[in-house]
Amino acid sequence: MSVDTAHQQLAAAGTSRYVDHCMGIPISLAIRGRHARSRMGRTAWDDTIAELRRLDSIFSTYRKSSVISRLERAEIGPDDCPDEVAEIFELAALAKLETNAAFDIWRPRDDGVRHLDPSGVVKGWAIERASAPLRFLDDTAFCLSGGGDMVCRTPSTDAPAWRIGIEHPHDPSRLIAVVPLQNGAVATSGTVHRGEHLVDARSGRPVVGVASVTVVAASLTVADIDATSAYVMGADASRWLSDRPGITGFVVWADGSTTTTGDGQKSIS
Fold first, then answer.
1. What confidence tens digit (pLDDT) does each residue in 14-27 have?
2. For the chain, which terminal residue's Cβ has fewer other Cβ atoms within 10 angstroms, N or C?
3. Is 67 helix (H, G, I), strand (E, B) or coil?
């Protein structure tokens, strides 16, 4: 997913862009308005990246020293973990319940041992949480992106919306849809960039029938979890999304056809 370049025109105070790498993905920020080039804007970006690095030290499944890795190896117990771990586990438990266990942060492996991977909950939640310093910048719009998940803000209803391009899962060089968004979040789940990393937790097998799922919501935590949950529901993705309140869903099926669900408050074209 990408910010539509046709709508990245310079605002009155200009637009600044920052890019870093954290949590195994590129993190980018587009910021326009009063603090686009101010010291406060730069400090807010630095604080955002610092928070993402802190959360990565807790939840990274690639670092042997992370809290979540040590928890999986039973070197520590739940009571030894930061409060954020309990929050993620609660969100994961709710998603598991709502998908009849198709979504689960405990995944089966070929050796029969379950593997702990909370990534399907953590990414959007972490990006939304880390955007807090940017929200304190007055008269400033921003779009914070990480691995296909974006949280956007504009300071007023008169400000131009961010236009978020949804990549075509069969051809990432082109867009299949565009989402205009002033305040809210967009998340896309699929396998085009990371391969078959999304599975139905009940079987441990890759999902068939669906190519990607995009969700537009007020909260990036909700958008990311719902996009992943719908994806692992496979053929039931659009039906499952249609029962979710306050969101818009956009499903691209394996044959390239699409289905849009939602409350009509967000447009996908």
1. 789 999 999 999 99
2. C
3. helix
